[in-house]
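Final report, Chapter 2: Outcomes

The project's central promise was a pipeline that accepts a single protein chain and returns its three-dimensional structure in a standardized token representation, suitable for archiving and comparison. That pipeline is now operational. To close this chapter, we reproduce one record exactly as it appears in the project archive, with the input sequence first and the structure output second.
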Amino acid sequence: MSNTRLLISVSEDRWNQELPDFGSLSNKVMITVFDYVSTLGEIDFWDGKKPLSVNLCLSNDSEVQKLNKEFRGMDKPTNVLSFANIDDENFSEDCELYEEIELGDIIIALETLEREAELKKIPLIDHYCHLLTHGLLHLLGFDHIEDDEAEYMESCEINILEKLNIKNPYLE
């Protein structure tokens, strides 16, 4: 899918050491997610013609904790935060007005990513791909508040990760 744009900012220098190929890896994940979701026929705001863009920030626990407290009322770090423009009341109009559909922002905390990967005994790269997939699905309108939504979103994640040759992260 050539009409996508991923803007990556890095606010934690250790990302370059821990995942030196994060740029091409992130693009590969994004394209895989968008390709998969386009086959589902559920994204009513996108016909495949306009480019989609995502802002991704590779950060740390401290920055994510501040955002998590400010926007979710939880004073602790988390692995990934997504701020979806689809939740904006003007999103539909913006999709029609602008040449590009900006889906929103994703921020991932390196230390939490590392702790979780170690705890789960999975490669850091696999867990990163899972968190990015999860965040991208949120930007596309997927959620996991209700049980049926969670099951559906998890099945999408499993299928997308399988296309990236990553094992099901929900198996114990």
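Archive annotation: The mean pLDDT is 92.
This record, like all others produced under the grant, will remain available to the consortium after the project formally closes.
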